[in-house]
Design goal:
Helix Hairpins; 5-stranded antiparallel beta sheet; alpha+beta; single chain; Ig_E-set
């Protein structure tokens, strides 16, 4: 790692890179993605905040419920108060307030004797309540024009709120709460190959359509030129070349990553795994059967959550002509006897043994 304490790499100020790497191994090390799928990345100060206004619909949908309801409540109140003030000002200019009790007076805003009654006229007009005591008459064209403008504006606010509320309620994030991942990864042998395994399951009877699984390895490293790359992402093959990443998620699935020459764990053995500072991000995507919307669930595994020499217990059994899933055994593992060597060392040992036998 670079020795210069003021070294910059990729926008990150590296004071003491060795201490930084050591800090990530501490008991409360920072995760890139939490176990429940939340990304722990805080954005810095954003200068061009106008970009959020240009996409106002997404900005409103992304707001928390308390701010979302506050924004639309203020929109309604402001329009009611604004048009109530305009009605009051128009009634004052036309002397409708002074002649409110004169039956011979041709009023533009009937029964408006103050700001409160003008506010009620605005509220009744926009919400189409129509109690009948206050109204805009045909004695002034500006009143009819003002009423049309308020009706159009009120319809726009209603449509925007209904659309945003529907999208916010039907967003598929909550569907991800019933998609579960095993608490640990395990590394064991399958068909004489070293494999990394983890489990996923769906608690609902309505299944995900076109479910796909992928994984990323998050690890900081230094290039040969001395550049420090924090949080570099590497792809972990879960079967995208064979179609194994496409799942029929009817029962819990055990996802397999074969550790071969193209795997980032090719040179990682049991002892080296304990010294590594890594994080595996698992992403499950699929279409919600009920709504047709795309849902994504995430989790992560750090190096201390990867169990070397373990296998998952079976959670599927046959019960009265149907398969039964026992989710109490979903996270259970048991230890198996296997070498502590990396896949590379195992391959070299096997090749050496074959060569010795041949000789």
């Amino acid at each position: 790692l670079p020795a210069d304490p003021s070294h910059r790499a990729g926008g990150f100020i590296m004071t003491k890179p060795a201490e930084l790497l050591h800090a990530t191994v501490s008991h409360q090390r920072q995760r890139y993605v939490t176990k429940d799928g939340k990304c722990r990345v805080n954005l810095g100060p954003i200068v061009e905040k106008s970009r959020f206004i240009s996409d106002i619909f997404t900005t409103l949908v992304d707001l928390k419920y308390r701010w979302f309801l506050l924004v639309f409540t203020l929109c309604y109140i402001l329009t009611w108060v604004t048009f109530g003030g305009i009605y009051f000002f128009g009634a004052w200019l036309r002397n409708d307030i002074k002649h409110v009790n004169d039956p011979q007076w041709l009023a533009c805003y009937e029964n408006v004797d103050g700001f409160l009654s003008a506010l009620l006229l605005s509220l009744e007009s926009q919400r189409t309540i129509g109690y009948g005591s206050r109204m805009v008459t045909a004695n002034c064209p500006e009143g009819a024009m003002l009423l049309m403008i308020q009706s159009i504006l009120g319809s726009i606010i209603d449509a925007l709120m209904v659309g945003c509320m529907f999208v916010k309620i039907s967003r598929p994030q909550q569907r991800a709460q019933t998609l579960i991942f095993s608490k640990h990864c395990v590394i064991c042998e399958r068909d004489e190959k070293l494999c990394m395994l983890f489990r996923i399951g769906d608690l609902r009877e309505s299944h995900m359509v076109d479910a796909k699984i992928r994984a990323k390895l998050i690890k900081s490293r230094q290039t040969k030129e001395g550049e420090f790359i924090p949080l570099e992402q590497s792809e972990i093959n879960l079967g995208y070349d064979t179609g194994g990443d496409r799942l029929l998620l009817v029962e819990p699935q055990t996802i397999t990553h074969v550790i071969n020459e193209n795997s980032p764990f090719w040179e990682v053995g049991s002892e080296r795994l304990k010294r590594e500072t890594i994080e595996i991000i698992v992403i499950l995507e699929g279409i919600v059967e009920a709504s047709g919307m795309t849902c994504q669930a995430r989790t992560s595994y750090t190096e201390d959550e990867i169990l070397w020499g373990h296998r998952f217990e079976s959670c599927i059994s046959l019960d009265k002509g149907a398969f039964r899933v026992d989710y109490s055994a979903f996270d259970k593992t048991f230890e198996v006897q296997m070498p502590l060597l990396s896949a590379k060392d195992r391959s070299s040992t096997k090749e050496q043994a074959i060569s010795d036998n041949y000789c």
